[in-house]
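Hello support,

Our group uses your service weekly, and this is the first time we've seen a run hang past the timeout. The protein is Geranylgeranyl pyrophosphate synthase. I'm not sure whether the cause is the sequence or the server load. Input pasted verbatim:
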Amino acid sequence: MASPSSERRTTCSVVCTISLTSFITRLPCNVKQVDAHGLLALSERRTHLVDEVLERFFAEQRRRARGIGEAYSTLWETLERNSAGGKRFRPRMVMAAYESLGGQDLESAATVGAAFELLHTALIVHDDVIDRDFVRRGSPNVSGSYRDIATTAGIPIPIAEHRGMSVAVIAGDLALFYAYRLIDSGGLSEQVRRRVVDVLDESMFLSAAGELYDVDFSIRPGVPPVEEIVEMERLKTAMYSFEGPLRAGALLAGAREEAVVALGDFGRGIGIAFQIVDDLLGVFGDEEATGKSNLGDLREGKSTVLLAHAVTRPEWQEVAHLVGDPTLTLEQADRIRAVLEATGSRRFAEALARDYANRAWEALASPALTSRVRDEFRPVVAGVLERVR
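Update from on-call engineer: The timeout came from a worker crash unrelated to the input. Re-ran successfully.
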């Protein structure tokens, strides 16, 4: 990661010189010419393999839990439901790296991919506890499920909510522990297993640091500078969602160290770009297209690159009192968006996302990686760029 001072210089340069159209134009032409049907079939096959691993895993844990009692079995059923419904993005990164580097044992790759999916499940279950959220993907999460069970039984809401969050801590602990156990069941050689576990360990270690920074931001006066927010997003999300899975897939395939490093660099860049775009969509996105509220981040006062840039501009004082208001109206949100446009904060965040996508593409151009790897991950770069448009 670049130092804050060098980050600031790079950011300024990029914001001044790069535009979305020119960036896309500069990419190799076949970044934009993707065989959608072929990619969809490939993605579905990988997802199916990971789903099979997870189905076998949860079936075994439910069987064991029934020997303890119905309550424990129900907890495992709830955890399984909460691990379903996602896009299996992280395991697909593992398998994409593995296959593009010549890996043949898809069952082992799917098992490692499933481990990263369980890690993701653990982190979002715990993240919902931290944020006091009771819903995920439009349905009750673990906390919400157990809160609802308690309120149905006549338990007062504060106690019911505490019970829900307590059970979610237990469920997240289980998912975290068994992410490591899944790797043990992948049939890997001892040397490869140790290196993959080290990557999972680093992913968890850095994500916890990022989560801590995010929690600190929520109680800290003012909005942190851009560099600190980017670093938090790298730690909290980019490592375990992109960089870690890609490095793990490369290690499984027996790739040379230079290839592992290059894919990791790609994952770091594209992961940061993805998160900046996600924050943009959290304010400017079409709710029907994204499936995500474009009021939630403003009502929460979430620290993002958008806000970090805006607070340095005098116009921000017109709307500063509205950000973080849980009763924020649609009209007030539109006022904030207008200021974010007027201050150039939206353009700044878009340019920064493109800059990190560009860094990711440059990592893919490493001579340590083959054209097959570049072909595999071109759609990922293009997909992030399309989300900015």
